Amino acid sequence: MIPTRSYAASQAHAPLAPYAFERRDPRADDVVIDILYCGVCHSDLHQIRDEWGRGEFPMVPGHEIIGRVRATGSGVTKFREGDLVGVGCMVDSCRTCSSCNEGLEQFCEKGFVGTYGAKDRHDGSVTQGGYSNNIVVSQEFVLSISDKLDAAAAAPLLCAGITTYSPLRHWKVGKGSKVGVIGLGGLGHMALKFAHAFGAHVVQFTTSESKRADAMRLGANEVVLSNDAEAMKAHAGTFDFILDTVSAPHDLNVYLGMLKREGAMVLVGLPDTPPTVSGAPLIFGRRSLAGSLIGGIAETQEMLDFCAEHGIVCDIEKIAIADINEAYERMLRSDVKYRFVIDMATLEG
Ligand code: NAP
Ligand code: ZN
Ligand code: ZN
Question: Which residue from 76, 156, 161, 286 could staple onto 39, CB 3.0 to 4.6 Å apart?
Answer without folding.
Answer: 156
